[in-house]
């Protein structure tokens, strides 16, 4: 199923057992809840999915099992985040072989490429796969900025279609729309700026806390899309203390604790990450518990026409 780059795309967590194996039953249960809640696609193996710790065989299982269960309902994307361009090409081609519907593509890892090198990396992958591509632009975390001028070159490749906008600069949404119109789809990649970017014209939201709160996330998107801003803002304000868990180095552990608390995930992470303990766990659990105690009643958001 071709991604349309509209709506909510969870950067899904990878579920593990206590023995550090893939927990496919729990993983597929979470995906089922996501789909039932109205998400518009799934991104496998992102930073939140602990991409750097996954083996190639595990990525294959995740892609194929997600497609088997849900490929007729939503597009399934695989993240590609590699240190070398040749390996990024190989991973993209494997994703295509496995049946993935698209890619989220990061700049080179562990090396701060300049503009020419970044363009070479992205365009080399695009030339070697037919899959549609979402470029992940996150200069805050990855120190490489994919500027509007660079997208002039990137959009010459028809399968480069969208950007995960994570610059933390809301004005960049307007800048990109002014320059490219609808030729570049914009998906907010920062949970704490999502409603602001959607109001300013972003087409979608690559979300993190959606892994634990899919209904609230999709509801906000659909209310904004319908122009029901006040209703969306009330839910967004409730959501904000939870959304702030997404902008921390331990976002994986924090969001997995959320998933466990609401019954659609577990806290198990893969080393070097460790599950939360002590004061830190108590502090994050308190944030979650306070939000759950006043969790809002949602309108019938699934009936809102898209």
TrEMBL record:
The lineage of its organism: Bacteria, Pseudomonadati, Bacteroidota, Chitinophagia, Chitinophagales. SUPFAM superfamilies: Aldolase. CDD domains: DHDPS-like (cd00408). Pyruvate binds at residue 206. InterPro entries: Aldolase_TIM (IPR013785), DapA-like (IPR002220). SMART domains: DHDPS. Belongs to the DapA family. This is Dihydrodipicolinate synthase family protein. The keyword Lyase applies. One of its GO terms (molecular function) is 4-hydroxy-tetrahydrodipicolinate synthase activity. Keywords: Lyase. The active site is at residues 136, 164.
């Amino acid at each position: 199923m071709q991604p349309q780059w509209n709506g909510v795309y969870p950067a899904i967590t990878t579920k593990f057992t206590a023995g550090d194996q893939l927990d496919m039953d729990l993983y597929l249960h979470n995906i089922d809840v996501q789909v039932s809640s109205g998400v518009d696609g799934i991104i496998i193996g992102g930073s939140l999915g602990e991409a750097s710790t996954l083996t190639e065989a595990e990525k294959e299982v995740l892609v194929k099992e997600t497609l088997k269960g849900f490929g007729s309902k939503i597009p399934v994307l695989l993240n590609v985040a590699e240190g070398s361009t040749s390996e990024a090409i190989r991973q993209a081609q494997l994703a295509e072989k496995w049946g993935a519907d698209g890619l989220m593509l990061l700049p080179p890892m562990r090396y701060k490429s300049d503009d020419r090198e970044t363009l070479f990396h992205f365009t080399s992958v695009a030339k070697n796969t037919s899959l549609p591509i979402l470029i992940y632009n996150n200069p805050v975390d990855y120190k490489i900025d994919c500027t509007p001028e660079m997208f002039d070159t990137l959009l010459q490749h028809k399968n480069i279609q969208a950007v995960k906008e994570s610059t933390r600069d809301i004005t960049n949404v307007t800048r990109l729309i002014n320059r490219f119109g609808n030729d570049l789809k914009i998906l907010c990649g920062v949970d704490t700026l999502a409603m602001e970017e959607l109001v300013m014209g972003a087409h979608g939201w690559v979300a993190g806390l959606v892994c634990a709160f899919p209904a609230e996330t999709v509801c906000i998107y659909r209310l904004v899309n319908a122009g029901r801003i006040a209703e969306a803002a009330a839910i967004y304000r409730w959501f904000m203390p939870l959304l702030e868990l997404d902008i921390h180095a331990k976002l994986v552990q924090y969001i997995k604790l959320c998933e466990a608390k609401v019954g659609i995930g577990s806290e198990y992470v893969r080393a070097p990450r460790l599950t939360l303990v002590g004061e830190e766990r108590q502090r994050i659990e308190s944030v979650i518990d306070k939000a759950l105690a006043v969790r809002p009643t949602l309108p019938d958001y699934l009936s809102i026409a898209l």
